[in-house]
């Protein structure tokens, strides 16, 4: 059984609410099932509620057929939101809300226009090139939030104490890109606040985003920020994160092969090291993988 470090839950009386938030850029695979096991399992162990969100901020890659398939596969697996099956919160429907929160940040002097492209920025943190240029919206639709120096410390329920420096890791955050689309970091911070998310359970690939999202949450006015739990990713034979195009691990392919939901969940749990052997596991029973003590 896994063990949860409950240090991060101390000092807060807020109800525990978490979310499962896939992006409809492809079909579900076993890596998503592992995340669902962690989300619903830890939620059941801690008495938390689970909400569903579709993170479809990527207007180019997200497609309706992927959204329909994700919802259908989740139903088939038995992972049901505590708000019911439909409708989930969708980022594409929330532009007015993002505009309102952008205005709040702008009024506080945290936002500036940026004309830098990825080619100009490179792979490192943004150096604040446009921060004091006074550019207007006519020169670029892209906007950034200034991230000032300082540490963000948090107790991860799975990894223990963490400390990050968003200003040196990422620099000033892009919140609206050059195409006028809202970015993941901004949309997630607003959504988590609006949905009352107090517990975020996700893969370690997003661990480095945590400090900047905590910083942004405070700028948006959150007094009590979420607690985080980052779990190991399910990797392919090359040691890489599973792709949504991986047919060998796709839920739809496993369904066509005649596997039951309990067998699929059991296989995902075994591959993730949550169980020693591949045994059938019902979605309602995934809380057994965690020990609260």
Summary, kept brief:
With 293 residues, the chain is α/β, with parallel strands linked by helices. The chain has helices at 30-46, 64-77, 95-107, 118-121, 166-169, 184-194, 210-219, 251-256, 261-271; strands at residues 2-3, 17-20, 49-54, 89-90, 111-113, 143-145, 152-156, 160-164, 173-176, 199-203, 227-231, 290-291. It is globular, with a radius of gyration of 20 Å.
Explain this structure to me?
This protein is 31% helix and 16% strand. With 293 residues, it is an alpha/beta fold. α2 links the parallel β3 and β4.
Q: Segments where pLDDT lies below 50 for 5+ residues?
A: none
Oligomer: single chain
Distance between the termini: 11 Å
Number of domains: 1
Tally of helical segments = 9
**Level-1 CATH class name:** Alpha Beta
Give the arrangement of secondary structure elements.
Layout: E1 2-3, E2 17-20, H1 30-46, E3 49-54, H2 64-77, E4 89-90, H3 95-107, E5 111-113, H4 118-121, E6 143-145, E7 152-156, E8 160-164, H5 166-169, E9 173-176, H6 184-194, E10 199-203, H7 210-219, E11 227-231, H8 251-256, H9 261-271, E12 290-291
Structural key phrases:
three-stranded antiparallel β-sheet, 12 strands, 293 residues, 9 helices, alpha/beta, Rossmann fold, 31% helix, three-stranded parallel β-sheet
């Amino acid at each position: 059984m896994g063990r949860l470090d409950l240090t991060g839950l101390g000092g807060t009386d807020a109800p525990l609410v978490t979310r499962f938030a896939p992006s409809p850029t492809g079909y579900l695979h076993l890596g998503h099932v592992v995340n669902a096991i962690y989300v619903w399992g830890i939620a059941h162990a801690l008495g938390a509620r689970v909400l569903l969100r579709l993170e479809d901020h990527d207007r180019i890659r997200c497609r309706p057929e992927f959204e329909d398939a994700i919802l259908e596969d989740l139903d088939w697996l038995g992972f049901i939101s505590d708000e019911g099956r439909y409708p989930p919160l969708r980022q594409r429907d929330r532009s007015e809300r993002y505009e309102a929160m952008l205005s709040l940040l702008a009024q506080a002097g945290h936002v500036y226009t940026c004309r830098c492209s990825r080619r100009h920025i490179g792979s490192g943190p943004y150096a604040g090139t446009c921060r004091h240029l006074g550019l207007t919206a006519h020169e670029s639709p892209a906007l950034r939030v200034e991230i000032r120096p300082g540490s963000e410390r948090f107790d991860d329920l799975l990894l223990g104490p963490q400390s990050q420096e968003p200003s040196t890791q990422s620099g000033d955050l892009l919140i609206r890109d050059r195409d006028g689309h809202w970015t993941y970091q901004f949309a997630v911070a607003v959504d988590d606040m609006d949905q009352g998310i107090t517990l975020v359970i996700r893969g370690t690939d997003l661990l480095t985003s945590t400090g900047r999202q905590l910083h942004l949450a405070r700028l948006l006015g959150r007094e009590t920020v979420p607690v985080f739990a980052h779990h190991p990713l399910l990797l392919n034979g090359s040691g890489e994160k599973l792709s949504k195009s991986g047919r060998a691990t796709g839920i739809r392919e496993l369904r066509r092969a005649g596997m039951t939901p309990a067998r699929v969940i059991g296989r995902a749990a075994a591959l993730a090291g949550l169980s020693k052997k591949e045994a059938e596991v019902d979605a309602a029973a995934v809380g057994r993988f965690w020990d609260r003590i």
